[in-house]
Structure prediction request, 288 residues.
Amino acid sequence: MTKGREPITRAVEPDRHHATTPVTASAPTGGTWTPDEGEVEQFEREGFIVVRGLLSDEEISRFGKAARQMVEDRRTQTRHLDGWEKVFLQEQAVWRRDVVLRDLSLHAGIGAAAARLVRTPVRLFLDQVICKYPGDLATLPHQDAPFLSYDDRRSVNAWIALSQVTPAHGALSYYRGSHGLGLLREVDLGTEDDDLLADAPQVRDRPIVEVPAQPGDVVFHHCLVVHQAGPNMTGDDRIAFSNQYMPEGARYNGWEHEFLLDLGLALGDALTSPAQFPAPAERPATPL
Ligand SMILES: O=C(O)CCC(=O)C(=O)O
Prediction:
């Protein structure tokens, strides 16, 4: 399915450390993956871990269909092709409004795995459908931490492939171990030339690992690990879902997001209301 634009090839700069074989775990039965101590240490060392086949076939089919529907509904609206929207579509706070996808936002197995990786109970901060349409630009190298509305770094993102993601579709790449560099500056992902690596050349010393993915694969990444994605040079939508988990008790630091605006948060508030930031497997009473 195309949206009628020529693919724009803003390539991600190749790197002499480039590798395409990530260190990988696999979920033996689909739907469950409980990282053992060695895998938790691997995540702590590398800043990310790839889990093949975490979703079951039934989940891939159900969630994939619902996400495609959301992407399709949005495609028919006018997209403002500037800023972020040249890079990917983001549909946020999905759990509050989609009866099917909320099961992925509140997925007990993925949430429990995230909690084990950061060694603390977690709540969902932000869930979103992400679609890189055909022709969408590369996602520039960045950390997630500068965009988070809390300062606690025990935060992990589960990036869940719902379509095939080859390098040509804009696969994610991670600078292995770059979370150890600490907090870098925010990147304006809506521009084409905000070059974090120019200001933080030490990132280039870290090997970059590209992560092609199949539907149902999940990459867990630390909020400080530097990552990027290539442009979508295919005619297919690259569809993913992502859950950003924060540690229990994280406090609001004033960073605004549109999905937070109606929640009435004050600086320093604990982000612990189950109706606003559910723990995985909690079933908030919020009407859909
Ligand atoms: O999907 C992408 O291209 C980037 C996603 C990302 O940066 C993230 O989920 O943290």
